[in-house]
Write a structure and sequence with these properties.
mainly alpha, about 85% helix
Length: about 130
């Protein structure tokens, strides 16, 4: 009997309009909070992925720089950098300069002195014609 009476009391409390309105209000507040927080959590997840990518790139760059440092700390690495940046040679070495053939270089080589004398003679004859 006592069990039956407690069930009646519970039903009176839980099935009242006030309690149902309170639960509905609580449900609406929880849904609103979830909807409001979802975009922020999505942005945080995207930022986290971007930061992980940047971290991987930075670690790769660090490894490359460490390799470059070890190369430069060796005598051959130092020598390569000095030769490349300062354009120097060791005593007893010769420098070989290779020039690629293109139209401008070909014209200079072919025309070279002939063009100078040809132009000089043309200019000289033009000057004489203008003077006399």
């Amino acid at each position: 009997m006592k069990n039956f009476q407690t069930n009646i009391v519970r039903k009176k409390i839980f099935y009242t309009k006030k309690f149902i309105i309170f639960l509905s209000f609580l449900l609406i507040v929880l849904i609103y909070s979830t909807i409001k927080i979802y975009p922020k959590s999505r942005n945080a997840l995207l930022k986290s992925r971007e930061i992980k990518k940047e971290l991987e790139e930075a670690e790769n760059r660090k490894m490359e720089l460490e390799k470059e440092i070890t190369r430069l700390n060796s005598p051959t690495g130092e020598e390569e950098e000095i030769r490349r940046n300062l354009n120097v040679i060791k005593p007893g070495e010769n420098v070989l300069i290779i020039v690629e053939k293109n139209e401008q270089n070909a014209n200079i080589k072919e025309g070279g002195q002939n063009d100078f004398w040809g132009n000089f003679l043309k200019d000289l004859t033009a000057w004489f014609k203008n003077k006399f």
